[in-house]
DNA sequence: TTAAAATTGTGATGTTTGTCACACTAAAAC
DNA sequence: GTTTTAGTGTGACAAACATCACAATTTTAA
């Protein structure tokens, strides 16, 4: 488990074993079961999570009570309600397990302490944040330029494994179309 | 002009005058005219821009030649094709002036040098990147949960000044609807 | 194992939105 | 000042999509 995190960080910023031991001391290790909540809309957001194994969904519930998938978080992904996490405010989204999931969790004070004390990690977090920003922007472009059918094909191409792991209903909620429409798409 | 940039950074990370002078030495100062391109799709992306005054549009052109507004960049905004900028690849988007615009520009090597040599600035860039990521995610939520009409009202509420500065055609392109549909929205 | 719950496909129908067309206005260029 | 260009509103029609309903299947839980 530790090795996965180390290899993940090393891909961007190689660390010595001592440095990684220091990094690891800022995290806690947790296991959650399917359907468990890591973050509940309306509550505090104490942690940012690195997914070792399993699958999470980041969901936003609108006024009508309808759920929308803002993001899936698979192996090697970092996820949280970042807005609430960084500003120490109440969650606007929930983070819930689609499968049994194993994570490393880091609190905001540890995140900041680690960033300050080990510049390599601040660099790592900066690069991760930039990549997250770029990924979100690509999803926006997908909404601007593509029909539901095209967005579906793009998703299928980008994350082929997702289709064996999540229901069509959830995929539809991620794509921003109704379950029935997704069911009728050609491809 | 320099003062605007200093105040902007100071809001997140206060700098001494010496530190700011060091920061400033990594930027160049440029003026562009309406319709000028700062970034052209398909070409190299040498700079990331801080907008002092003026207004930019970040546009993505699809296969059919239709333009989509990924983002407006107003005063105090940082903008680039970040994906191409950070990976030193060709631009997938263009950045063009809607109004005469004044910017500070920073090349990637200066960005990295500045981050390394002045940890405060790495912290600043990290916070900015996180905020950018959060803003993009909010736009995704807006696409998932809201009709064209609701997205229009949200935009009107968030950036009321935009409506005196850009054409309805551009607003429609930002909202992801046709010009005609936007023209027919109630509100 | 059996009952309950969740998942999926599909028809019918109405709403929303895109596309094409044209007229009108305002601004910019000559 | 006149011509060109860009921006805007609106009608008519077609395509995309949402919603409601129901049946069939699979998964989960007792």
Report on this structure.
- Two copies of one chain form a homodimer.
- With 187 residues, chain A is of the alpha+beta class.
- Chain A has a single domain, classed as Jelly Rolls.
- Helices cover 49% and strands 22% of the residues of chain A.
- In chain A, the strands form two sheets. A four-stranded antiparallel sheet of chain A has the order 1-8-3-6. A four-stranded antiparallel sheet of chain A has the order 2-7-4-5.
- In chain A, strand 4 and strand 5 form a beta hairpin.
- In chain A, helix 4 crosses helix 5.
- Chain A is globular and about 55 Å long.
- In chain A, 36% of the residues are buried.
- At the A-B interface, strand 5, helix 3 and helix 5 of A face strand 5, helix 3 and helix 5 of B.
- The structure holds a DNA duplex (30 and 30 nucleotides).
What layout of secondary structure does this protein have?
The structure is a homodimer of 187-residue chains.
Chain A: H1 2-12, H2 17-24, E1 28-32, E2 37-39, E3 47-53, E4 56-61, E5 67-73, E6 78-79, H3 82-87, E7 94-97, E8 101-107, H4 108-117, H5 119-145, H6 148-158, H7 162-165, H8 168-175, H9 179-184
Helix pairs in contact in A: 4-5
Chain A binds a DNA duplex (30 and 30 nucleotides) through helix 9.
């Amino acid at each position: 488990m530790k090795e996965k995190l180390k290899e993940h960080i090393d891909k961007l910023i190689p660390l010595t074993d001592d440095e990684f031991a220091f990094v690891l001391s800022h995290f806690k290790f947790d296991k959650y079961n399917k359907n468990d909540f890591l973050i509940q809309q309306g509550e505090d957001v104490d942690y940012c999570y690195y997914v070792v194994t399993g699958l999470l969904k980041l969901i936003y519930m609108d006024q009508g009570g309808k759920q929308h998938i803002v993001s899936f978080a698979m192996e090697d992904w970092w996820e949280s309600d970042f807005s609430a996490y960084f500003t120490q405010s109440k969650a606007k989204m929930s983070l819930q397990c689609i499968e049994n999931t194993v994570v490393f969790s880091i609190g905001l004070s540890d995140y900041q302490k680690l960033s300050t004390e080990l510049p390599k990690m601040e660099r790592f977090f900066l690069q991760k944040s930039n990549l997250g920003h770029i990924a979100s922007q690509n999803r926006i472009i997908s909404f601007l330029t593509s029909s539901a059918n095209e967005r579906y094909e793009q998703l299928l191409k980008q994350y082929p494994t997702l289709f064996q792991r999540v229901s069509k209903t959830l995929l539809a909620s991620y794509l921003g179309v109704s379950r029935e429409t997704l069911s009728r798409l050609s491809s």
